[in-house]
Specification:
65% of the residues lie in helices and 6% in strands. The protein is mainly α and 397 residues long. The longest helix has 35 residues. The two termini are 45 Å apart.
Length: 397
Amino acid sequence: MEKGEKLTMQLMINLFQREWQQCIHDIRRFIFLFGAAAAYLIIFGLLYVPNIITHVPCIIYDNDQSAISRQLTREFEDSDSFHVISYAASKEEMLSALQEKRVYAAIEIPKDFSQKIKIGDSSTLLFMVNGSNIILTNVTSSAAQNITTHFSDRLASQQAALRYSLDQQTALQRIAPIQYNFRILNNSTQGYTLFFLIGLALVAFQQGIFFSVGASTTYEYEHPELRSKFKTEQLLLIKYIFYWILSMFSYGMVVFLCHVLWGIPIKAPLWQISILGAAFCFSAIAFCTFFASLFRKEMQFVRGIIMYPVPAFIFSGYTWPAASMPPVMQTLAAAFPLSWLSNTARELFLSGESPHLKQSILALIILGIICSILAYITYDNGLKKTRIAIKNKFIIP
């Protein structure tokens, strides 16, 4: 190895050691990288322990008080989706309980409910739900519809069997000739742990990268005298390598905890999940370096990046599908690294494959390259200004 190559290698080693020493003296960087995702996994994992929403408080106003209405009432009482906490004596009492949020759902059985059914007419059941929480609304409305449909079909088959001297099952087949089987792939229980937890952990993981890389990036602005002999590209290269290695360890911890601690299945090969994570770490580090290079103080950077997590999570399409967003929003979402990670990672975990895997990896690499170029331009310009300020003994505010 020639002398110049030895000097370059030694310089890289010195920079790597320098970065390590900074982390040792600023332990927050390790906490950000490894603690944020772990904390989210524990906190939200405990929150989603029930996994599905059951026993939603409800009230029933039975204005008919007939044998049929009481049968329907028992159907709601026996359902795991509802918890009948009281029976209203009037419509006003029912509405009051709903408005005061003592219950989240209300069922009103009209006065002529059984009479209409007996003469062959249809009767209307009123189901009301507090729509301020759409999750409760979706769960209860779906359950109420299923209960009512099954009760109606069974009641109709009983009446037809008595009237025409048929077997009840035969009558049911004639009344409701079309049956359906409901099958949900990849999340059969519709559990919120499988749906939300992966995405929330990845958001925290990303934010941990941002805080640690941002602290390292702005450190050079705040201590220009310590890096006067290093070139910008040397600083960036070592920072990328150093934090990419740490980020991959943190990513592995997230995958491990998701699977071992909360039992989230990993159906895809680990190499696919690893390659996706590697591409994301590179893209996130480049994205953060560019963003942090626009600030001269770490606190300024923190104030700026603190606004990023919620929009990034929403635009990622993890909860609200990206295909349902306006085209402008979809274009904006493509500039966020999380948009190419969250859904693809969930698909790999739960279904074992993702049709978007190659596209996501390629997009993350391209985004990382673009941000790296921009980061070099802005960072090099910022470092030059700090050098000039030092020479002129100018204190940057």
